[in-house]
């Protein structure tokens, strides 16, 4: 595995020119989550599933156009298939960033119309855009004109008082005129005034039936459901009604039961599945490279804290890394010390 850091004269070696625009299997994906779905986390997740689509954290257009582009776009080649999620509302800027996504070899570019935080609202980013479907359609149209990659959208059922099914229907009807035909719908509305992002993931009720109705009314669209889904059994139940399932926090906090079985259950690929300890060992060469680049140990291994969730020694594993991983001298040896608390085929304890 090597870290991609393409230069302008080498982008052809990593571009997706050979990939048809929509040849991506979105039956299962891990949701974009700020501070969580970093490149380090995605490398770890890829060790458990070959086929699950992985998303970056949301990256704003301003960060890419005016900031450290390499910091936000670099990733490990093992992460494919991988989608870049963008935050923004300026069609020209989004088109420019969509071109960057193609140049850097991403497999998809996604527009965030679901984030409810005050910070992004103030910049006309995220869920507030549900009040402006025509602008969203314009953004997606410009993005598609700028790249050969699939351009997709992730949004909510609605926002605040714009929360009827009729509004959701009009939103989808308007946005699909852009040519975008892959809609990931978080089956909750967002309350933009009064709830934190965390509360917006928990308090507004899940209404899965509205997502099902959108698929029934727009059979030509690819409709992916998101929100509160915690198991592959639940995913399979949803797949009777929609085209794909996106799992969020459960795939991060307790990844092994979902991602290690995803290829067989969802994608029909019955390849051998490594146990949890073997997954941790397979991660070590990557960890060594990251530390050699100057990354602090804990910044990388914090994404593995859920690997032994519910397993004997899992709490001790997490505690050892939490207490020792921040030390200046912490390195791979510290990670190996933590692994001594867990054993292959360990029995569950009270986690």
UniProtKB/TrEMBL annotation:
<feature type="binding site">
    <location>
        <position position="85"/>
    </location>
    <ligand>
        <name>FMN</name>
    </ligand>
</feature>
<keyword id="KW-0694">RNA-binding</keyword>
<keyword id="KW-0560">Oxidoreductase</keyword>
<protein>
    <recommendedName>
        <fullName>tRNA-dihydrouridine(20/20a) synthase</fullName>
        <ecNumber>1.3.1.91</ecNumber>
    </recommendedName>
</protein>
<feature type="site" description="Interacts with tRNA">
    <location>
        <position position="201"/>
    </location>
</feature>
<feature type="site" description="Interacts with tRNA; defines subfamily-specific binding signature">
    <location>
        <position position="315"/>
    </location>
</feature>
<keyword id="KW-0521">NADP</keyword>
<feature type="binding site">
    <location>
        <begin position="32"/>
        <end position="34"/>
    </location>
    <ligand>
        <name>FMN</name>
    </ligand>
</feature>
<dbReference type="InterPro" id="IPR004653">
    <property type="entry name" value="DusA"/>
</dbReference>
<keyword id="KW-0285">Flavoprotein</keyword>
<feature type="binding site">
    <location>
        <begin position="226"/>
        <end position="228"/>
    </location>
    <ligand>
        <name>FMN</name>
    </ligand>
</feature>
<comment type="function">
    <text>Catalyzes the synthesis of 5,6-dihydrouridine (D), a modified base found in the D-loop of most tRNAs, via the reduction of the C5-C6 double bond in target uridines. Specifically modifies U20 and U20a in tRNAs.</text>
</comment>
<keyword id="KW-0820">tRNA-binding</keyword>
<feature type="binding site">
    <location>
        <begin position="248"/>
        <end position="249"/>
    </location>
    <ligand>
        <name>FMN</name>
    </ligand>
</feature>
<keyword id="KW-0288">FMN</keyword>
<feature type="site" description="Interacts with tRNA; defines subfamily-specific binding signature">
    <location>
        <position position="318"/>
    </location>
</feature>
<dbReference type="InterPro" id="IPR013785">
    <property type="entry name" value="Aldolase_TIM"/>
</dbReference>
<feature type="domain" description="DUS-like FMN-binding">
    <location>
        <begin position="30"/>
        <end position="335"/>
    </location>
</feature>
<dbReference type="InterPro" id="IPR018517">
    <property type="entry name" value="tRNA_hU_synthase_CS"/>
</dbReference>
<dbReference type="InterPro" id="IPR001269">
    <property type="entry name" value="DUS_fam"/>
</dbReference>
<comment type="similarity">
    <text>Belongs to the dus family.</text>
</comment>
<dbReference type="InterPro" id="IPR035587">
    <property type="entry name" value="DUS-like_FMN-bd"/>
</dbReference>
<comment type="similarity">
    <text>Belongs to the Dus family. DusA subfamily.</text>
</comment>
<feature type="site" description="Interacts with tRNA">
    <location>
        <position position="112"/>
    </location>
</feature>
<dbReference type="Pfam" id="PF01207">
    <property type="entry name" value="Dus"/>
</dbReference>
<feature type="active site" description="Proton donor">
    <location>
        <position position="115"/>
    </location>
</feature>
<feature type="binding site">
    <location>
        <position position="186"/>
    </location>
    <ligand>
        <name>FMN</name>
    </ligand>
</feature>
<feature type="site" description="Interacts with tRNA; defines subfamily-specific binding signature">
    <location>
        <position position="198"/>
    </location>
</feature>
<keyword id="KW-0819">tRNA processing</keyword>
<feature type="binding site">
    <location>
        <position position="154"/>
    </location>
    <ligand>
        <name>FMN</name>
    </ligand>
</feature>
């Amino acid at each position: 595995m090597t870290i991609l850091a393409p230069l302008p004269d080498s982008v052809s070696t990593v571009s997706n020119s050979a990939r048809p625009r929509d040849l991506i299997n979105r039956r299962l994906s891990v949701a974009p989550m700020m501070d969580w779905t970093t490149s380090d986390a995605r490398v770890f997740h890829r060790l458990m599933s070959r086929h699950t689509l992985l998303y970056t954290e949301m990256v704003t257009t301003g960060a890419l156009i005016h900031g450290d582009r390499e910091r936000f776009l670099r990733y490990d080649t093992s992460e494919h298939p991988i989608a870049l999620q963008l935050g923004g509302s300026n069609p020209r800027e989004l088109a420019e960033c969509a071109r960057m996504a193609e140049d850097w070899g991403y497999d998809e570019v996604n527009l965030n119309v679901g984030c409810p935080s005050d910070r992004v609202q103030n910049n006309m980013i995220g869920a507030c855009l549900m009040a402006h479907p025509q602008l969203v359609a314009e953004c997606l149209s410009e993005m598609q004109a700028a790249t050969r990659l699939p351009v997709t959208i992730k949004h909510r059922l609605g926002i605040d008082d714009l929360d009827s099914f009729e509004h959701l229907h009009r939103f989808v009807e308007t946005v699909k005129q852009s040519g975008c035909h892959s809609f990931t719908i978080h089956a909750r509305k967002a309350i933009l005034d009064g709830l934190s992002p965390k509360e917006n993931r928990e308090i507004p009720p899940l209404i899965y039936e509205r997502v099902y109705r959108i698929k029934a009314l727009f059979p030509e669209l690819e409709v992916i459901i998101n929100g509160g889904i915690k198991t592959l059994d639940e995913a399979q139940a949803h797949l009777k009604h929609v085209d794909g399932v996106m799992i969020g926090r459960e795939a991060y906090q307790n990844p092994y039961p979902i991602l290690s079985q995803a290829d067989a259950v969802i994608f029909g690929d019955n390849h051998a599945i490594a146990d949890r300890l073997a997954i941790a060992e397979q991660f070590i060469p990557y960890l060594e490279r990251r530390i050699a680049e100057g990354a602090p140990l804990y910044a990388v291994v914090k994404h593995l804290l859920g690997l032994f969730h519910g397993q004997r020694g899992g709490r001790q594993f997490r505690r050892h890394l939490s207490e020792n991983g921040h030390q200046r001298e912490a390195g791979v040896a510290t990670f190996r010390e933590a692994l001594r608390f867990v054993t292959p085929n360990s029995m569950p304890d009270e986690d």
